[in-house]
Every structure is written in C-alpha cells, then in structure tokens.
Amino acid sequence: MEYIIDIQNVKKWYPKKKSKEVIEAVKGISLQVKRGEVVGLLGPNGAGKTTLIKMMCGLLIPNEGTVKINEFDMNANRSKALKHLSVVLEGNRNLYWRLTVKENLEYFSGNRGMSKKEISSKVDELLERFNLKGKAHEQVNTLSRGMQQKLSIAVALLADTDIIFLDEPTLGLDIETSYEIRKLLTEIAKGENKTILLSSHDMPVVQDICQRVVIVNGGKIITDENVQNLLDLFDTKAYSFTLQGKLTDAQFDQLSHTYLAKRMEGDGEQSVIEVTIQQSDQFYAVIEQLKEMGQSIEKIDRTMIDFEQVFMKIVKGEIRDEVAISATS
Known about the structure:
Blueprint: E1 3-15, E2 22-34, E3 38-42, H1 49-56, E4 64-69, E5 72-73, H2 78-82, E6 85-88, H3 101-111, H4 116-129, H5 145-158, E7 163-167, H6 175-191, E8 195-199, H7 203-209, E9 212-217, E10 220-226, H8 227-234, E11 237-243, H9 249-258, E12 260-264, E13 271-277, H10 282-292, E14 297-303, H11 307-315
Parallel strand pairs: 3-8, 3-9, 6-7, 7-8
Antiparallel strand pairs: 1-2, 1-4, 4-5, 9-10, 11-13, 11-14, 12-13
C-alpha cells in the first residue's frame, strides 16, 4: 500500500528554561496517509499538534523518528520532499501584500520553476473559479481577509503539488465567506484528487470535507478513525420535548431517575427537556411518563450529534475503546 505521507515514531522535545528538564511536545507519533485521502488533523491547544505540523512541513527536525513525503525523507532530502507539498498557513502569511492578486499567483508559481506563459491559462481559470477576476490587478493589502484566504488556496492549487496542507482555512472569516471557502475546499477534495491535510477548530468544515480524522492530545494520537464511523459510534437517541406547562423539580428528578435528562431553556410558560434513551421502545415510555405527570407535549424533535460534540467527547476522555483503533490498520 502506498503512503504519500509516512511518519514513523517521531518525537520532539525541548529543554526547559533554566532547568535540566525537557518538555516532550510529541511523544512518539506514527501516521500514514494514502494518496488522495482527505484527513483532518485536530487537537486542543498544547496537544503537540503544531509541533507535529512543523515537522511534517520541514520546519522542525524531530529528535527521533522519520517524516517521509512521497518516499522522500524530510531530513535527508528536504528539497525533494517539499516539492510535493503546498502549505496554506492561518492568517495572511502566505502572500506578498504589495503585489497584486495576479502577481502573487505568477510570483509563487515562478518560485516553483514555472513560467508566466506556462501558467497563464491556469491563472485565469483560478481567478474565475475563486471569484477574484475583478480583483486581479489590486494589491493584496487592499483585499478582505476572505479574499486573501481564497487567493492563498488558489496559489496552493496553482503549484499543483500532490499534497495540500491547510491550517485554519476559515479562521476569522464571516459566515458567508466561511461557507464559500468550505464549498471550494469540498470541490477540491472531491474533484482534484489531491491529498489534503486540514488542521482546523471549525468542526463543520472537518465534518463536511474530511474522510478521516486524527486527534492529537498530550503529544500522542488518541484517535485515528473515519469521520462517519465516529459520528455513528457516538450517535445516541436523544429527543427534545417541548412541554406546554412547567416541569417541577420533583417531576424532573423522577424522569432523571430512569433516563439521562437535562433541562433546556424554555420560552415563557413552556419547559424544554432533552432525554437520551438506549432503546427505541423507551421513547414511548417517556411519553407515557410525561402524560402521567399531567404534562402536555407540544413538540418533539430528534437531537442529532455533530462532529464538534464528538471531538469534545474524545478530548475529554468520554471515549470507547473502539475509537482508538487506527483507520489505517
């Protein structure tokens, strides 16, 4: 099986200031990514994720272990490894502000050894696709953050590398632009046959475009699994009941004695509770119990889990043994 990214037992530690102790940022991570996969690389702050990313991009050398990009060792053959990788960093560190949109595309393609003539039609195509044609001759420092981010992704695509690494591609964007970026990334993921690594705290983006997620915490991989498998694993039958009257504390305690229940914010004289059940037939038992309490049900909604909830459950340790099974095994 071919892995375009092959990381074997990488470790990275730093000397602690004014001490003989060391800080272990990455504690022996192995990770393989197949060609064409779309993988989310996630983790809370201080988890070791940023250090791992820097080693993957050749910005840090691991104390132990190897990073191979398309079979080239990042330490021994760094220049050859980097030819297969484009990186879109968070913020506006990917562009030259005093160059125009078109000049940025031409400049960065020139760094890759491509001539203006060679990439001319591709530049026009990307300007059209990313809705930047009207801004082609404007300096980057006059653009909105969303347009700058779209241009950064266009630059990465123009390089036509096998791997695109995206660091927080929707951070700080307004809702409309965030959805536009998400749509573009989905199109790239499904239609460009690129290997994409996505690091983000925007869980809807991860859920929409990633096939698989790798979650790092404490310098180790704690989860490596298919996105849909994780959603299915943590899926529970939870229902929101909107009641016409007020549910007393005694009634709520009675309901909580049998089911996992929590109060939600009600409207006026209404009460809203969320009840999680283990078996389908318990749904009717909840309705019967509420009826016996003299409560009239105005509305019932099914509560669906999203990937943000899954991520938080895993990081907090609310995790089943099956989650730790590697998606590559």
